[in-house]
Specification:
The complex is a heterotrimer.
Chain A: H1 2-7, H2 9-28, H3 34-59, H4 67-85, H5 90-115, H6 119-137, H7 147-153, H8 164-167, H9 172-190, H10 192-202, H11 204-209, H12 214-240, H13 250-260, H14 273-291, H15 296-320
Helix pairs in contact in A: 2-14, 3-9, 3-10, 3-12, 3-13, 3-14, 4-5, 4-6, 4-12, 5-6, 5-12, 9-10, 10-12, 13-14, 13-15, 14-15
Chain B: E1 9-20, E2 23-34, E3 38-43, H1 49-56, E4 64-69, E5 72-73, H2 79-84, E6 87-90, H3 102-108, H4 113-122, H5 139-152, E7 157-161, H6 169-184, E8 188-192, H7 196-202, E9 205-210, E10 213-219, H8 224-233, E11 259-266, E12 270-277, E13 282-286, H9 293-301, E14 308-313, E15 316-318, H10 323-328, E16 331-334, H11 338-341, H12 348-353, H13 368-382, H14 397-411, E17 415-419, H15 427-442, E18 446-450, H16 455-460, E19 463-468, E20 471-477, H17 483-490, H18 495-506
Parallel strand pairs in B: 3-8, 3-9, 6-7, 7-8, 13-18, 13-19, 16-17, 17-18
Antiparallel strand pairs in B: 1-2, 1-4, 4-5, 9-10, 11-12, 11-14, 14-15, 19-20
Helix pairs in contact in B: 4-5, 8-17, 13-14
Chain C: H1 10-20, H2 23-40, H3 47-72, H4 80-98, H5 100-124, H6 129-151, H7 160-167, E1 169-170, E2 173-174, H8 176-193, H9 195-205, H10 207-212, H11 217-243, H12 255-264, H13 276-295, H14 300-322
Classes of the chains: A mainly alpha, B alpha/beta, C mainly alpha.
């Protein structure tokens, strides 16, 4: 038990901060309740998916600067196809969008492995490319989202047999996040591929000596990042009901949440629980500042400063680390 | 020793050759290992051992030669393939992933827990937990885990590269016992080590490489050490060439030494080194690979902090947090790898002038004429071939090395730290470098000169210290510095060396 | 070690020419693009068009100087566009309040400040320049929006000097050229003939070697990012003189092309190699290319896609040529 505590001390500390922030929210706004939690979870959903995607490539020792652009592409594909194909085939659209995300991520990874250009340069170039693709698909916000899909991420959970007052507290967006994370990440984390992802990020030479296929693992890590980015893009479209071709502020936010969540930017270290909690901390902080009627622009500045400070402190820690 | 040793060889490599560009790393290497046999693979630094090992384990492809395993001709395309056919190496650097725990590392390479546990216990590590992260374990434990992991995969041929280098004595005992038992159970072991004592204890035969050629194969028997040392050197009779009168200023010895090092320790390898470097002296440093000389030079050049001990420059204590601090006290480094020192894409001139621009007060306009004169002077003194001067990477290795030395000659040498400056460069350049060192010393510079080529001690140095196991085990005057003497000392075969090696092993 | 006899294929030969004189093929490319433009719309090539092209290429070339200088050390400055915008907006809103000269000085203060912060993050905290400058850019944009709320009623005015530089012509050439030429000469000279310039190349070529030679890299990086912030600020002042309408995203559209201009101009994104002359030609090429794409009615999305593809393709080619990764 103590071992569990020391191992997850970072995540537990983050969780404590989150609880304090939520309590603070309740104090600032005494009628903060189910609907407040719902909008918080919905706002956090795309950030959380972006952070998971970014987290996976950072664990593999890389970085994906194009993640926000991939989200934009996924979002507009979803909005456009749902408009054209109708509500009935929205399930098919979701599948197409997720596949497109995997493909975009895999293209990023393949370009890194094949051109031997550093990941940071490749994904910077691909940031522009995917941004262009999103604009070519939809040059102004448009499209629709199927209402029954939107209902999946809006409002509280209803479980037959339990009183709705109880279950309404649990936002559906949060359930969606947990479900996808559990379905994709947990099996991956325990699999040989997941271990290989950690291995190439931790010590590429040792991984090579142990016979890990470095190139393939890297491509797979980027493909998973693409998958989660697509989920993020999809969730934006579902929560706004419209496709937005201009990428949102997800890149820096995801890097900050990854660092704050305890994943080392040098790779190989950390899990996804911490970063997800970090996303909720950053979102709740924004909510609190808004509730305190701080100018939203000042809120942006404060957020920016927190993120830059986190990355800078992370950099200093990495320098003092064992490597 | 064993009956099986006389049987048909399990592994039989012959005529193996490998070139890297213009350099022939291996010319004609061969090795046979029978089932149940332990064979030591020996050779001085640069004899081609590591290339041979890489070829045998599939990390490199040979240009020529055959590798027979169980009588079948095999060519391994990758380490994974070699492993599948039963040749399994334990490399000097651990191949465990630092950020995963032990259990995850096992799953990554498909090793079941039970046999692994068995071998870990057998090798003397009792308190291992499977959820320990690798990064928290000491190096000695990691090497044992690497060995246990390999044993659990039931190798036909086990290849151990300097397996005992980082181990305390009790673990060395366990390892030797276990591999002897492995051999007795019919497996083959290739044992690479610098330690004669261990080789004498467990090995059946020793195969000696020199300059990429297998020059001998001996059955281990008492007194064989001398013969092997001689063979590694090439059987050349002791030759101390007249290196010209090295008249040191009689007063020089009485003066404060330029550099006074006392009890210096750093990292896990440099334990306790003391020496004086006088003005106008070239002091050789002789050591086998990994005896702490890398750490010694890094500390003196300001790249890392010492764990213990003191450094005095001209009688005043010194402590360096950055190479700039060391340079300010006159200590300048020519590192072992030229790639670390040179701006490969920039010109000879920019490379030589670099230290002059380091301080912010020199960031303004460059005095081009003065710089040109200074660079021309260095180029002339070192006879640098300037035909490809626009990009240093197009120069030959020897010329590149001259540029790294020239950088400090242009700046005015006080104390020059040379780390194996002649490795991999042509003979002509070498023989231009030695007189230069003597000339610099004659002008009052002090030079600390680590070399992996033992004849250079007689050619360029006044004295040499021999480091073994992180300690100075011998100080040899240039007139006594025959390669045999140096080699014996470097292998810890002198009395002081034997003591030192037990002391090192006793360390946790 | 004997030098192996070099056998050179035509491709390698071409690669070597490009490596040693990247400006020559770039000028040829520029001429080809101009020729293509003239073919598509005969008569477009005249003094007026040349003047205009140069006028719009200058702020791009100046912002690309920021990228060239940082890229030489293996970095990048993605906050340069925001810095230019901030300076432009501040100068335009403060001129009616405090007068031109004071406004210019006050406008350059945030530019230098952001440069200092970037230098601190990159040089001392060792944050990757890309992430660091992206972050400060975001903060800068936020600050600008807050600032805007306080000056919304003061109106805006552009100092006469920059309006003169931005819009006037002398001897048929835009006045901006008379600011740019000394600027370019200063950068070219600074990179070749000063210790600081040399250290930028050295740091990008091999940081370990500079350390070995006694260079404290944080000092160089602090100074570099501060200088680069100042250059971006001045660019903003000039650009607002050209556009004559301050906005909250004035120079942001120059950001992407400035990176592309430096990359096309032969500056290696890994550091250690490049020249400002190449970047200038790169900026001209992009400006002409922009005209061409407008003429062909290429949508915005395809333009961005093209920029990304160019950066990736050029870098991949440089990796092949220099065999460096």
């Amino acid at each position: 038990m103590t071992r569990f505590l020391t191992r997850h001390s970072w995540s537990l500390g983050l969780f404590a901060i989150l609880v304090i922030l939520l309590v603070a929210t309740r104090i600032i706004q005494p009628n903060f309740g189910a609907s407040g939690l719902d909008s918080l979870a919905r706002a956090a959903l795309p950030f959380a998916f972006a952070t998971i995607g970014m987290g996976i490539v950072v664990i593999a020792g890389g970085i994906d600067l194009s993640i926000a652009s991939i989200m934009a592409v996924a979002g507009v594909i979803a909005a456009l196809l749902m408009q054209q194909m109708g509500d009935a085939s929205a399930g098919l659209v979701v599948l197409i969008v997720l596949l497109a995300g995997v493909a975009m991520g895999a293209i990023n990874g393949l370009l890194i492995v094949l051109t031997r250009v550093p990941d940071i340069v490749v994904t910077l170039a691909m940031l522009f490319v995917w941004e262009g693709v999103a604009l070519l698909i939809l040059n102004a916000p448009g499209g629709t989202a199927a209402p029954w899909l939107r209902a999946l991420v809006v409002g509280g959970v209803t479980i037959p047999g339990l009183p709705p007052e109880l279950t309404a507290w649990l936002p559906r967006a949060f359930v969606v996040l947990v479900a996808f994370t559990l379905i994709i990440w947990l099996p991956l984390r325990r699999s040989k591929l997941g271990l290989s992802i950690y291995a190439i990020g931790s010590d590429q030479n040792a991984a090579f000596r142990s016979g890990v296929p470095i190139g393939m693992t890297r491509v797979a890590a980027y493909a998973f990042a693409g998958l989660f980015a697509a989920l993020g893009g999809l969730s934006i479209t579902l929560s706004t009901g419209i496709g937005e071709p201009i990428a949102g502020p997800y890149l820096l936010a995801s890097v900050a949440a990854v660092v704050l969540g305890g994943i080392s930017l040098t790779g190989g270290r950390g899990g996804l629980l911490g970063p997800i909690i970090a996303v909720f901390i950053l979102r709740t902080l924004r909510l609190d500042l808004t509730l305190l009627s701080v100018d939203p622009n000042v809120t942006t500045i404060i957020e920016g400063i927190i993120m830059v400070a986190v990355v800078m402190i992370g950099g200093l820690l990495a320098m003092r680390g064992p490597r | 020793m064993t009956e099986a040793a006389t049987g048909r060889p399990l592994l039989d490599a012959s005529g193996v050759a490998k070139r890297f560009g213009a350099v022939a790393a291996l010319k004609d290497a061969s090795l046979t290992v029978a089932a149940g046999e332990i064979v030591a693979l020996m050779g001085a630094n640069g004899a081609g051992k590591s290339t041979f090992v890489k070829i045998l384990t599939g990390a490199l492809r040979p240009d020529a030669g055959h590798i027979h395993l169980d009588g079948q001709d095999r060519r391994f395309a990758s380490p994974a393939q070699a492993r599948r056919s039963g040749i399994m190496p334990v490399y000097q650097e651990p191949s465990l992933i630092p950020d995963l725990d032990v259990a995850d590392n096992l799953r990554l390479v498909d090793v079941p827990v039970e046999p692994f546990r068995h071998w870990v216990n057998e090798l003397g590590i009792a308190d291992l937990r499977l959820d320990d992260p690798i990064a928290h374990l000491p190096l000695a434990t990691l090497r044992i885990l690497d060995l246990a992991l390999t044993l659990a995969k039931e190798p036909k041929v086990l290849m151990l590269d300097e397996m005992t280098a980082a181990l305390p004595t009790d673990l060395v005992e366990r390892v030797l016992t276990v591999i002897r038992a492995q051999a007795d159970a019919g497996r083959s072991v290739i044992y690479i080590s610098h330690r004669f004592a261990e080789i004498a204890r467990v090995c059946d035969r020793a195969s000696v490489l020199r300059d990429g050629v297998t020059v001998g194969d001996f059955v281990i028997e008492p007194g064989i050490e001398e013969k092997i040392v001689e063979l590694m050197l090439g059987g050349i009779p002791t030759r101390v060439e007249a290196t010209g009168a090295r008249i040191r200023d009689a007063a020089g010895a009485a003066e404060t030494p330029r550099l006074q090092v006392r009890g210096l320790g750093a990292g896990s390898k440099l334990a306790d080194v003391s020496f004086d470097l006088n003005k106008g002296e070239v002091l050789g440093v002789v050591a086998l690979e990994g005896q702490g000389q890398d750490e010694l030079f890094s500390v003196l050049a300001g790249f890392r902090r010492a764990r213990s001990g003191t450094i005095e420059v001209d009688g005043k204590p010194a402590s360096f947090g950055h190479p700039a601090d060391a340079i300010a006290r006159g200590l300048t480094l020519v590192p072992g790898d030229r790639k670390d020192a040179l701006l490969m894409l920039r010109s000879v001139r920019e490379n030589i002038a670099l230290p002059q621009l380091a301080h912010p007060s020199k960031w303004g306009a460059i005095p081009m004429r003065r710089e040109a004169a200074r660079v021309a002077d260095a180029v002339a003194r070192l006879q640098i071939d300037m035909r490809a001067q626009a990009e240093v990477r197009r120069l030959s290795g020897g010329n590149q090395q001259k540029v790294t030395i020239g950088r400090w000659v242009a700046a005015g040498v006080e104390t020059l730290l040379l780390f194996d400056p002649t490795r991999g460069i042509d003979v002509r350049t070498k023989h231009q470098i030695y007189p230069l060192l003597r000339e610099l010393a004659a002008q009052g510079a002090s030079i600390l000169f680590y070399t992996s080529e033992l004849d250079e001690v007689a050619l360029a140095c006044d004295r040499a210290i021999v480091i073994f196991g992180g300690r100075v085990v011998d100080v040899i005057d240039a007139s006594q510095a025959s390669e045999q003497n140096l080699m014996r000392a470097a292998y810890g075969l002198t009395e002081a060396g034997r003591q030192s090696s037990t002391m090192t092993e006793a360390q946790p | 070690m004997a030098t192996p006899v070099e056998t050179i294929s035509p491709l390698q030969y071409a690669a070597r020419i490009i490596r040693e004189n990247p400006v020559i093929p770039l000028i040829l490319l520029l001429c080809a693009l101009v020729g293509l433009l003239e073919g598509l719309q005969p008569g477009i090539f005249n003094e007026r068009w040349v003047g205009n092209t140069i006028r719009f290429a200058i702020p791009l070339a100046m912002l690309a100087a920021c990228q060239t200088l940082t890229m030489l050390t293996g970095g990048i400055d993605l906050s340069a566009g925001v810095v230019a915008t901030v300076s432009a907006f501040v100068v335009a809103t403060l001129t009616p309040l405090v007068g031109g000269p004071a406004a210019i000085v006050l406008a350059l203060v945030p530019a230098v400040l952001m440069g200092l912060v970037n230098g601190f993050g990159v040089g001392i905290c060792r944050v990757h320049p890309l992430i660091m400058t992206l972050g400060t850019g975001l903060i800068g944009t936020g600050c600008l929006q807050v600032y805007q709320r306080y000056v919304i009623n003061t109106g805006s005015e552009i100092p006469g000097f920059f309006e003169f530089l931005g819009t006037g012509r002398t001897f048929g050439m835009p006045n901006a050229l008379y600011l740019f030429v000394p600027f370019a000469i200063l950068i070219l000279w600074g990179l070749r003939r000063t210790g600081f310039g040399r250290l930028l190349y050295a740091l990008g070529a091999n940081e370990n070697a500079t350390r070995l030679s006694g260079v404290r890299s944080w000092q160089v990086l602090m100074a570099l990012y501060t200088v680069v912030g100042l250059i971006a600020g001045i660019t903003g002042l000039l650009y607002v003189g050209i556009i004559r309408a301050p906005s909250l995203s004035l120079a942001n559209s120059l950001m992407l092309p400035s990176v592309a201009a430096a990359v096309i101009g032969g500056t290696s994104i890994f550091g250690g190699r490049g020249s400002y002359s190449g970047t200038i030609v790169g900026a001209l090429i992009l400006t002409v290319l922009g005209t061409l794409l407008t003429l062909l009615q290429i949508p915005e999305g395809a333009r961005r896609l093209l920029f990304g593809a160019i950066i990736l393709a050029v870098t991949a080619v440089y990796v092949r040529i220099t065999d460096q990764s």
